Amino acid sequence: SDFLSARLLFLPVAVLIPPAVAALTWRLSRKRPLALVAGVLAIFCGYYLPFLVTSDNYALYLLFGALFFLLLDKASYPRAILLGMLAGLLNLARADGLLWLPLTLGVVAWLFFQEGKDRSFSGRVRSCLLACLLVLGGYLLVFGFWLVRNLQVFGSLTPPGSGYVLWMTAYNQLYSYTPEIYTFSSWLAVGWQEIVLARLTALGTNLSTAILAQGSVFLFPFILLAAWKHRRELAVRFCFAGWLILLLAESILFPYASVRGGFFHAGAAFQPVWFALAPLGIDSLLGDLPRLRLNPRRRLFVQSLLVIVMIALSAMLVKIRVLDSGWNEGEYRYQQAEQVLLEYGAKPGDVIVTINPPAYNAMTGRQAIVIPYGGVQVLLQAAREFGADYIILEEDRLSAGLEDLYLHPGEHAGFTDIGGFDAVRILRIEPGE
Length: 433
What we know:
- There is one protein chain.
- The chain has helices at 3-8, 10-29, 32-43, 49-52, 58-70, 77-93, 100-114, 121-154, 184-189, 192-214, 220-229, 234-253, 255-266, 271-288, 296-323, 333-344, 357-364, 376-385, 403-407; strands at 352-354, 368-370, 390-394, 415-421, 424-429.
- By secondary structure, it is mostly helical.
């Protein structure tokens, strides 16, 4: 019934990430001190730390990603099944996790084909096909029930309307009440210049995310150096190939969602490899440069300085993101809004329209639907169709086109102002004719 309880289940998941990263580093280097450094980096993981033990999929993605790359050391049919299951778990955690199925099929096929050099070509092809079928079987073992659920609920493998996302030209259009208006023709109507510019902008922003957040700024050059040194390792090759495919897919197909956290979220699965490579890169630099050839003890001292810097960065981010704000992004005001509604006479079954329906339901237990994109008339139409009774407007989180409704609710038919507090206004939605 509270936020702490929701977070407790993510704590054991987060605890498993550092040992998995340390194991991955050990496999690449066979050096225990470097594995320990990488494990500590996975504990104090910079920009990801504030989100690790909260009700989100960051911890899941980091753990599943680490386990995935740990399994990429040899070809075996049981591992093919496990890799398929991990691909299914990644897909369950995020919709764009679907990308992991073709990536897994590709890397498993390549791995089996390469390790079957002593057999005939047809024999290698058969082993690849069998391995890919096992990957698909493992994937369906985990994700198949969700596909069955979609068929029962929607009559299709994917929710209706999900394909419209490809033709949207603004982030808030994700919350459209009438997504069918977004078509290939409407997408072309904005002009090629705007289409190309949006994708180039997304690519630039996501590359910045890679350097600043995923590479923690100062780790980034060491990650690149180690990746080049260990470029023959399958896990490193696949990590960079998969990350590059993700970068292009997010930037080109979903440019507006990717810059609003989509790429940062999805990239978490590759983060264990970056943490594993960072100490390897520093160790390589200290050993290869003539003037910096330090003995192992001094190298470990330099690695310790890196860890101290990472701890300081992580502490600063936790202070800003968690301690200073208390995770308060407006959700706690919903308890106050609920009190206003009860004093007005709202019934337990009345439905609310708000910017964050899951948060409102979690904080109050009342059903809620999202404020749709499109302005006042679209809001009124959607509210009446779904039987909503009240709308909560928050000045600091107003949807486009609702500014005048917030400032002058009496000038809009279909709404009655029942009060509010601070930057929150609550309106009753009058029944339609």
